[in-house]
Amino acid sequence: MSISHRSPFGEGMGVKPMNNVFVYCEIEGITVQEVSQELLTKGRKLANELGVELHAIAAGTGIKGKVEDQILPYGVDKLFVFDGEGLFPYTSAPHTDILVNLFKEEKPQICLMGATVIGRDLGPRVSSSLTSGLTADCTQLEIGDYDDKKAGKHYENLLYQIRPAFGGNIVATIVNPDHRPQMATVRSGVMQKAIYDGKAKEEVVYPDVTKYVPEIDYVVKVIDRHVEAAQNNLKGAPIVVAGGYGVGSKEGFDLLFKLAKELHGEVGASRAAVDAGWVDHDRQIGQTGVTVHPKVYIACGISGQIQHIAGMQDSGIIISINNDPDAPINAIADYVINGTVEEVVPKLIKYYKQNSK
Ligand SMILES: Cc1cc2nc3c(=O)[nH]c(=O)nc-3n(C[C@H](O)[C@H](O)[C@H](O)COP(=O)(O)OP(=O)(O)OC[C@H]3O[C@@H](n4cnc5c(N)ncnc54)[C@H](O)[C@@H]3O)c2cc1C
């Protein structure tokens, strides 16, 4: 599948090999969000493969001197810090104009941002202003070549924007051959952050915000904000006990909470269990839920549909408890316990308690 629009950077300019990889860093107050650091790590890898630089953008109020240390260690060659009144809390117009006007100057080949409330607002605005195209909610990003058989054209080093499509029935690789930047959003937790152990230039610039943002952009003012804190630590939990439709009831989930407490883990769920009302939506794991990377993932009564697997397949050890020996999740599990949740989970709790005394 390819997206086809007129290039904002003129014929041929968009595919110059020296155009860099950009990551838009989301800032809450003076704190860089984890999803941005995850994308910086991914962006660094892509930039290395392409032989270009990794650039980052931060925009906020009172962030100068506060965010640099949270961004540069991820292998950033150049950081643009836009610091000015009215840039925090986020509103659409100023942030969009910062990116659009900066990209007109810098002509990046790739731009990544979080598939967050902000990224979902900002990404489409920037991409439609630049007529560049955007792939939302990517689960993998890679560099590769593409042959357009119809046009008889060969493209090198495109961004493969990989994500489930058509209701999750296929995993699509989407390319944007002719238009720049190639834009993608990625959910929090899908990529993993790591401090860069190579050498990056770590240059920081503080552009004059007024050159990028017209006064009219500040017409929307945020008067009050209510930010709900996360109710659980599912994303960071080393052990996840996840329940599916096979758990059978809300009471069945009480058992899983008991097991999770013993193991110092968190409870996750499949969408079927969430839809049944047995557990809160913020515990849903998968394509339309949270992505987790625990050391141990215990799947209780989960069949293992592709949309669920998308959110847990990078777990260290996967244990499946299922009464169907042919459940698809068993194919990716390290250990399979063939039995019912009601029978197996109480035994796990009992023997864990006995053995950890
Ligand atoms: C666009 C889209 C997005 C989606 N996003 C997500 C998502 O983010 N996350 C997600 O999870 N799903 C998602 N889904 C839904 C997904 O396709 C599946 O329907 C869902 O994952 C199934 O949940 P499940 O495995 O719990 O239920 P089922 O598929 O019904 O599986 C239940 C399993 O429990 C086993 N079982 C039954 N009784 C017992 C018992 N007593 N003890 C032990 N095992 C038992 C059965 O053998 C079976 O394997 C999405 C679907 C679409 C179309």
How is this structure best described in words?
There is one protein chain. This protein is α/β, with parallel strands linked by helices. It folds into 2 domains: 2-219, Rossmann fold (3-Layer(aba) Sandwich); 239-355, TPP-binding domain (Rossmann fold), CATH 3.40.50. The chain contains 8 helices and 17 strands. The strands form 4 sheets. A 7-stranded parallel β-sheet has the order 7-11-6-1-4-5-12, sandwiched between helices. It has a 5-stranded parallel β-sheet with strand order 14-13-15-16-17. A hairpin with a 4-residue loop joins strand 9 and strand 10 (170-174). Helix 3 (92-106) packs across helix 4. The radius of gyration is 23 Å and the shape is globular. The N and C termini lie far apart (57 Å). Mean pLDDT is 93; it is low at 1-17. Flavin-adenine dinucleotide is lined by residues 167-168, 244-246, 248, 270-273, 284-289, 301-303, 305, 307-308, 311, 321-324, 327, 340-341.
Summarize the structure.
The chain is α/β, with parallel strands linked by helices. Helices cover 24% and strands 25% of the residues. Strands 7-11-6-1-4-5-12 form a seven-stranded parallel beta sheet, with helices on both faces.
